[in-house]
TrEMBL record:
Role this protein plays: Cell wall formation.
SUPFAM superfamilies linked: Glutathione synthetase ATP-binding domain-like, PreATP-grasp domain
Major place of residence: cytoplasm
Species of provenance: Cellulomonas soli
Cofactor: Mg(2+); Mn(2+)
Record note on cofactor: Binds 2 magnesium or manganese ions per subunit.
InterPro entries listed in its UniProt record: ATP-grasp, ATP_grasp_subdomain_1, D_ala_D_ala, Dala_Dala_lig_C, PreATP-grasp_dom_sf
Residues annotated to bind Mg(2+) 1: 264, 277
Family, as annotated: Belongs to the D-alanine--D-alanine ligase family.
Places the protein is found: Cytoplasm
Protein name: D-alanine--D-alanine ligase
Length: 315
């Protein structure tokens, strides 16, 4: 007798700045799972969620939430309290990966290069004076710099700073999304994203995606077709292509991630690979990088996602 198809509850939406992206990710994954014979329901993250899951009792919850509650482990903690298995990284490792300064430190200790950086809480500017603090940055790290929220995704609040006069505006933009800024040395080179999946036989890297934009790879460039060109696999030498895959797996394992992740990195002119950040809930929209990479590797998305579900249920 054929075993019954697992019932999966996809979580999408929430109240973060990335709500629209999450809804699109949830819709695409639900469609793919249904095409592979999986029974799927889609739920927003609101006051109705806990009663709905309590009544439904799905076999598995797949959070496709971007932003704080979706990636900092808190929603996963709540699902665990309900006693329902969750696809992906556990809450503790999610919290580590969600903090860019912490994840950079962990991955650097695993032997991977990452651009030099400092973290600056907004409160520090009030205590020490913004002018004094900003005056130290380009002297310490040099220019250009990248200013980004210490927690967050979809390039919201991220700025490339090429002159000292651009720093104040960049900090204001950053603090609109987080109370702590990560300021790191900008590395020139090829921007690459490598997704990692684990369907039960250990984490493996999918083909790297090279990202080419007509400007910064910001929110608009990520989710509105036309501004960004993607090359999958990336136009890298064979040895560098192998290395970026190795770095993605090292980051995945060093941070204790599970089932799925995406690592963003820069390859400089000398072929050095620089770790930037990792995402435990990669976007799954029609322009997102993981689906592009999976399809380039020859995967049917429905079957790949089904394998991730089954592997999560068997572990």
């Amino acid at each position: 007798m054929t075993p019954p198809s697992p019932r999966v509850a996809v979580l999408a939406g929430g109240l973060s700045h990335e709500r629209d992206v999450s809804l699109r990710s949830g819709r695409r994954v639900a469609e793919a799972l249904r095409s592979a014979g999986i029974e799927v329901s889609v739920h927003d993250v609101d006051a109705d969620l806990v009663p709905a899951l309590t009544q439904l009792r799905p076999d598995l919850v797949w959070p496709l939430l971007h932003g704080a509650s979706g990636e900092d482990g808190s929603v996963r903690d709540v699902i665990r309290l309900l006693g329902i298995p969750v696809l992906g990284t556990d809450p503790r490792a999610s919290r580590v990966a969600w903090s860019k300064p912490v994840s950079k430190t962990v991955v650097a200790r695993a032997g991977v290069a990452t651009p030099d950086f400092v973290t600056l809480p907004q409160s520090l500017f009030h205590e020490l004076g913004a002018t004094q603090v900003l005056g130290l940055l380009d002297g310490r790290l040099g220019l250009p710099l990248v200013v980004k929220p210490s927690r967050g995704g979809s390039a919201l609040g991220v700025s490339l700073v090429t002159t000292h006069d651009e720093l104040p505006r960049a900090m204001v933009d950053c603090f609109s999304y987080s109370d702590t800024a990560l300021v790191e040395r900008a590395v020139a080179g090829t921007e690459v994203a490598v997704s990692v999946v684990d369907t039960g036989d250990g984490p493996r890297a999918l083909p790297p995606v090279e990202i080419v934009t007509d400007g910064p790879y910001d929110y608009d460039a990520r989710y509105n077709p036309g501004r960004t060109e993607y090359f999958t696999p990336a136009r890298l030498s064979a040895s560098v292509a192998v290395r970026v895959g190795e770095v993605a797996v090292i980051a995945h394992e060093a941070l204790g991630l599970s089932r799925i992740s995406r690592t963003d990195m820069i390859v400089d002119a000398a072929g050095e690979v620089w770790f930037l950040e990792v995402n435990t809930a990669p976007g799954m929209t029609e322009t997102s990088l993981l689906p592009q990479s999976a399809e380039a590797a020859g995967h049917n998305l429905g079957e790949l996602y089904r394998s991730l579900v089954l592997a999560s249920l068997s572990s």
